[in-house]
């Protein structure tokens, strides 16, 4: 590996277990990385959760070298010195959000695999720029999440159901039981292109780390941009990659 000009990380099942903060050792390594190479977090999560679970814990990081792309790249934020300044957004209209939520409610009632699945806490999150449908709920225990859909077959069925009824939107799988819905043409590839332009580099000079770089996954859409990619099985593997980045970028 050569040192990239910038690094982009997915969050859930990449930097941390879904809906959990990264470990202390991961946070320490990310803080070290921020002082050497600019990096971004691009996630289906909203800004509030990224701030709570990650940014507020990166106390030793150089925030000026970190960018945030919440809601699957439909928004972009950079550090202004005392807060996160919105650079762009592609929010859904109120009518679009209502329509999406109505179809998700229909999916919950009609699709047997969803109807019969246990759920813990809220299933639908309206973040204005994106609607996230977490089949098992945001409070699902990790041991249940990891065995529910290891081959992504269930999420693909949910995705197919929603695509047939919401053809005018992007519908992508992410996390361990989540499907994300954004405006058509707005996904993580949009965030990669914007970040490359901001930094004045080509996507091919950047490096992307994610757990859903498979067909239909919300990370896979970045591949056509030309960004270098690394598929990971979880946070432990990501931490090893951060160590590798630190080694090559310090050399």
Automatic annotation (TrEMBL):
Transmembrane segments: none annotated. Mg(2+) binds at residues 10, 12, 211. One of its GO terms (molecular function) is phosphatase activity. Alpha-D-mannose 1-phosphate binds at residues 127, 180. It comes from the Bacteria. One of its GO terms (cellular component) is cytoplasm. One of its GO terms (biological process) is GDP-mannose biosynthetic process. Keywords: Magnesium, Metal-binding. The keyword Magnesium applies. Its cofactor is Mg(2+). The active site is at 10 (nucleophile), 12 (proton donor/acceptor). This is Uncharacterized protein.
């Amino acid at each position: 590996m050569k040192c990239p000009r910038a690094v982009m990380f997915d969050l859930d099942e990449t930097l941390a277990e879904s809906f959990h903060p990264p470990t202390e050792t991961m946070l320490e390594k990310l803080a070290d990385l921020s002082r050497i190479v600019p990096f971004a977090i691009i996630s289906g999560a909203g800004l509030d959760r990224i701030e709570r679970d990650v940014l507020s814990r990166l106390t030793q990081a150089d925030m000026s070298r970190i960018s945030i792309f919440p809601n699957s790249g439909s928004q972009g934020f950079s550090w202004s010195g005392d807060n996160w300044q919105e650079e762009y957004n592609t929010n859904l209209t109120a009518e679009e959000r209502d329509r999406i939520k109505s179809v998700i409610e229909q999916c919950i009632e009609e699709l047997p695999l969803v109807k019969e699945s246990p759920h813990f806490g809220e299933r639908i999150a309206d973040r204005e720029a994106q609607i996230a449908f977490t089949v098992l709920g945001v409070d699902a225990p990790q041991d249940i999440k990891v065995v529910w859909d290891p081959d992504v077959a269930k999420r693909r069925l949910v995705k197919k159901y929603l695509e047939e009824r919401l053809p005018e939107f992007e519908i992508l799988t992410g996390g361990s039981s989540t499907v994300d819905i954004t405006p058509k043409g707005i996904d993580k590839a949009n965030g990669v292109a914007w970040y490359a332009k901001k930094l004045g580099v080509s996507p091919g000079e950047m490096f992307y780390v994610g757990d859903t770089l498979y067909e239909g996954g919300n990370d896979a859409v970045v591949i056509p941009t030309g960004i270098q990619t690394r598929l990971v099985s979880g946070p432990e593997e990501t931490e090893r990659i951060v160590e590798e980045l630190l080694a090559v970028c310090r050399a």
